[in-house]
Amino acid sequence: MYLKSIEVQGFKSFANKMKFQFHNGITGIVGPNGSGKSNVADAVRWVLGEQSAKQLRGANMQDVIFSGTENRKPLGFASVAITLDNSDHQLPTDYSEVTVTRRLYRSGESEYQINGTNCRLRDIQELFYDTGIGKEGYSIIGQGQIDKILSGKPEERRELFDEAAGIVKFKRRKLTTQKK
Ligand code: ATP
Ligand code: MG
């Protein structure tokens, strides 16, 4: 499985619709300070369900919507779609390509989709359990996160190992069953 593309529109500094395409290898994103490199990582975090505006370096969630510049008006919504190659079926779905989309309007209305079909945030989280990709996964290591892992509580560190060992979905299922 690998990341094939990220499509952004109205997300942070990306007013115009634009698509980043990747290959099965290493890609570096370079550019001057403030040009939007970190915003690309924020886009991935956001589409995977990040609910904390602070984690996305904003005060509230609407801050991810393009807020305008001197010669461009603010936009009414932000949208991010990531497409993963799933031909090895690491993700538990028959699709060999999976596109996850998240959209947020200034009104606060939001939607999530998997391959164009509306879904709940929970469906996205479940799709990525135990893959290391979810927003709690280790596929995005943000600034300061290494420190957090090294100096974190044993229980917090355990979560990372559970994810790598592939047992998160069983733990979640157990919790859900116990609640019923
Ligand atoms: P550095 O090299 O300093 O880490 P960077 O390339 O990672 O820089 P980012 O932090 O990704 O840069 O981008 C910051 C830019 O994004 C700032 O210019 C900021 O004004 C812009 N930005 C963030 N949110 C929005 C928004 N909602 N609307 C418009 N622009 C935004
Ligand atoms: Mg940066």
Automatic annotation (TrEMBL):
<protein>
    <submittedName>
        <fullName>RecF/RecN/SMC N-terminal domain protein</fullName>
    </submittedName>
</protein>
